[in-house]
Amino acid sequence: QVQLVESGGGLVQPGGSLRLSCVASGSIRSINDMGWYRQAPGKQRELVATITRDGSTNYADSMRGRFTISRDNAKNTVYLQMTALNPEDTAVYYCNADVTTRRFAADVYWGQGTQVTVSS
Fold first, then answer.
1. How far apart are CA 41 and CA 73, in angstroms?
2. What's the CA angle centered on 45, arms 40 and 46, to 5 degrees?
3. How far is CA 42 from CA 4, 39, 74, 77, 92, in A?
């Protein structure tokens, strides 16, 4: 079993910054791609950013330049540094990870989400 736990969400004023973290734990042999997605009320879940094991990144156009994804492979952790936040960034942020377990089963796992609210 694999678990992903996000943290770092909260209430922030427009123009502010937040740093999200997501730790993967459990029966992990290796983690390939990791990513962040978000879902705003009444909208579909959308890509924020992804990062490969060797650090190659991909961003949604609206987040590029404001958000930075990074990871620490030794800690099975992915981060999302968010800057210049605006109310349209309000959403539940989810992390995911492409995991190969100790039994060599491969699957994509999701965290439970962390709420980010941008408001004055």
1. 32
2. 100
3. 24, 8, 37, 29, 12
Tokens of 7: 């943290």
pLDDT digits (tens, 9 = 90+) for 18-58: 999 999 999 999 999 999 999 999 999 999 999 999 999 99
Residue type, 49: A
| The two three-digit tokens of residue 104, written as one number | 């060599």
Q: Contact at 8 Å (CB) between 58 and 49?
A: yes
Q: Given this model, what pLDDT does residue 92 score?
A: 98
Provide the pLDDT for residue 91: 98
Inter-CA distances, 94 with 4, 44, 55, 84, Å: 9, 13, 19, 20
Cα(102)–Cα(7) distance, integer angstroms: 26
Nearest one of 33, 58, 36 to 46, comparing CA atoms: 36
